[in-house]
Design goal:
This protein is of the alpha+beta class. Helices cover 60% and strands 14% of the residues. The protein has 4 domains: 198 residues, Four Helix Bundle (Hemerythrin (Met), subunit A), CATH 1.20.120.1730; 103 residues, PAS domain (Beta-Lactamase), CATH 3.30.450; 88 residues, Helix Hairpins, CATH 1.10.287.130; 172 residues, Heat Shock Protein 90 (2-Layer Sandwich). The chain has 13 helices and 12 strands. A hairpin with a 5-residue loop joins strand 3 and strand 4. Helix 1 packs antiparallel against helix 2, helix 1 runs antiparallel to helix 5 and helix 9 runs parallel beside helix 13. The relative contact order is 0.05.
Length: 606
């Protein structure tokens, strides 16, 4: 079954609403831009009108100054008081025009200095002209002509004209700038409206395309849904477990053939029926109560095992799971049930329990046998060794060379058998005399083992380096035995001509998935590495060396019974860990031990 395509986040209704929202938003933006542009046009038109008004006021001021100049000159030349009437009227107009200029340029602080200078020049001009007029009234003839020839008033008048001309040029530049601004605003507004119109048109086209595509997709989805519904029915009908679905009232709305066969209604549908239609009153009431519990509380009934009477009257075991059925909003709309016939598994479990009991009894008997046999075998060995010692002490001369050779071989065999029995006892005591798990400081334990092996280390001139080792939960006696076996092995299997070097290091890490039986996923693990530079072994023997009595060398080469590493593996197995061995072509052996820092509560200690 191919994976279902992810559903679109937007329905057709949402896409329509979104499209119209985009269109309305764009129209709102166009309206806002148009309003801003209109306001900008109006404001700019007002500024243009004000600028033109200022320019007209400047022209009137200049014209009235010229009228004043003409009236003043005429009076100075002719002395006719009637000529001063135009002068006086023009002077008043100049004052009014200046006040108008001051009001119209109040929003342009950069013009204040020029207006102040213009005011000073006008005041100076008025003063000079007034002095000339008063002097003309008292002077006559050539003295009046000489007064006119001074030209001070004309100089001030020219400065006023120049200042008004500069003022007019500035207003003309401002008028040109505002005209350009009007053009830019018009172009921007036109471009915005055009772009908005195009966007609106494209948005409508896009909305129509999406709607049509969604309609086609919905039709395809409906067809795919029908196909998936048929496929689902085919799949659940192939499931051997009983699968059924009920609504909130406990009525069946879906089931598979296995369920219909189990309730003996394979020839008819179960839709709309309840458990009371197929089961006895007592069983049906229990099933109905379970359904109400799941539907009303939202809790699940997981893998509950019940013994029921089948259609043929035989007892069968069912493992039933019932979970609430929810709609996309999370509301409970029914329940889903799965029931599996586990009668065969129950029979296997019963048989397995019998086998486990037999195995436990067998192991107990083997432990007792190993302990009794080991103790009973040691007594004859002690006698053999004792009488062998007496023969060596009292009858050495009578035995002769050959007799002493036989005696030596007998004593060696007895000694090897005693070591073998003691190693067997150690192997059996890994579980029979195990102590509860406590916090073990591995570094202190390893240093104690090195102290115990001090004589052997000095004899071989060996170097044993113990790194930082953690504190873990374990059996301290067995941890000591583990380190003693590994370090003594490293000292025993030294390379001829080389000084033995043994290093013990560790690291703590947290794997992403469970690696050993003694720790859960995410639990911290301790990895201990014991490495030596001895003779090593071939890679094909990496597992064989942990088997009881397995030896890779003869007794004449290296002493031992072949049980030490088997004890190490049994100790790591009891602690829920692992031990593996590696050796390279150049020799040397590396033993990697993985142990949990914290033991599981369910870990056995027997």
């Amino acid at each position: 079954m191919s994976p279902a395509k992810p559903r679109s986040r937007f329905s057709i209704r949402r896409k329509v609403v979104l499209s119209f929202a985009l269109v309305l938003t764009m129209l709102g933006i166009i309206g806002y831009v148009s309003l801003r542009s209109t306001r900008a046009f109006i404001r700019n038109a007002e500024l243009v009108a004000q600028t033109r008004k200022v320019m007209e006021t400047e022209e009137r001021t200049l014209r009235h100054l010229m009228e004043m100049e003409a009236g003043r000159r005429g009076f100075l030349i002719k002395g006719d008081e009637n000529l001063l009437r135009g002068y006086t009227d023009a002077q008043g107009e100049v004052i009014r025009n200046f006040n108008t200029l001051k009001v119209d340029t109040a929003d342009a602080p950069q013009q204040t200095l020029k207006l102040n200078r213009l005011l000073r020049l006008i005041q100076t001009s008025f003063k000079l002209q007034r002095e000339e007029i008063e002097a003309r009234r008292t002077l006559k003839g050539d003295e009046a002509v000489a007064l006119f020839a001074k030209g001070e008033t004309e100089r001030v008048t020219r400065e006023i004209q120049k200042l008004l001309a500069d003022f007019n040029n500035e207003q003309q530049a401002l008028l040109t700038e505002r005209a350009e601004f009007t053009g830019r605003v018009g172009k921007a507004t036109t471009a915005t409206i055009l772009a908005g119109g195009i966007f609106t048109f494209l948005a409508l086209v896009w909305a129509c395309v999406l709607i049509l595509r969604d309609i086609a997709a919905r039709r395809r989805a409906e067809a795919a849904l029908a196909a998936e519904h048929n496929l689902l029915r085919s799949i659940i009908n192939t499931i051997p477990d009983h699968v059924f679905v009920k609504d909130l009232t406990g009525r069946f709305i879906l089931d598979n053939e296995a369920h219909r066969s189990a309730i003996s209604c394979s020839g008819e549908g179960v839709e709309g029926r309840t458990v009371f239609d197929y089961f006895p009153e007592e069983d049906a009431s229990r099933y109905h109560d379970d359904d109400r519990f799941v539907i009303e509380t939202g809790e699940r009934i997981l893998k509950r095992e019940d013994a029921v009477v089948g259609p043929d009257g035989r007892e069968i075991w069912l493992q039933t799971t019932k979970v609430p059925l929810r709609d996309p909003g999370g509301r409970i709309i029914g329940l889903v049930g799965i029931a599996a016939n586990i009668s065969a598994r129950k029979a296997d479990e019963e048989q397995l329990r019998r086998f486990a009991g037999q195995l436990e009894r067998s192991n107990s008997e083997l432990k007792n046998f190993a302990s009794v046999a080991s103790h009973d075998l040691q007594e004859p060995l002690r006698k053999i060794q004792a009488f062998g010692g007496r023969l060596r002490a009292k009858c050495a001369e009578a035995l002769g060379v050959q007799g002493m050779d036989y005696l030596t071989r007998m004593e060696g065999a007895a000694q090897r058998m005693q070591v073998l029995i003691q190693d067997l006892l150690k192997l059996s005591r890994v579980t029979s005399r195990a102590l509860p798990f406590v916090d073990c400081a591995l570094r202190d334990i390893a240093l104690g083992v090195v102290s115990d092996l001090e004589v052997a280390i000095e004899q071989k001139n060996a170097r044993v380096q113990i790194g930082d080792l953690p504190v873990i939960q374990g059996d301290p006696v067995q941890m000591q035995q583990l380190f003693q076996n590994l370090i003594s092995n490293a000292l025993k299997f030294q390379r001829p001509g080389e000084v033995p070097v043994v290093t013990v290091t560790s690291r703590i890490y947290t794997p992403m998935e469970p690696l050993i039986t003694g720790a859960t996923s995410g639990a911290a693990l301790c990895e201990i590495v014991v490495q030596d530079n001895g003779i090593g072994f071939e890679a094909c023997f990496a597992e064989q060396i942990f088997v009881v009595f397995q030896r890779l060398h003869t007794r004449s080469e290296y002493e031992g019974t072949g049980i030490g590493l088997a004890v190490c593996r049994k100790i790591t197995d009891r602690h829920g860990g692992t031990i593996v061995a590696h050796s390279g072509p150049s020799g040397g052996a590396t033993f990697t031990i993985t142990l949990p820092i914290k033991q599981l509560a369910s870990t056995t200690h027997e």
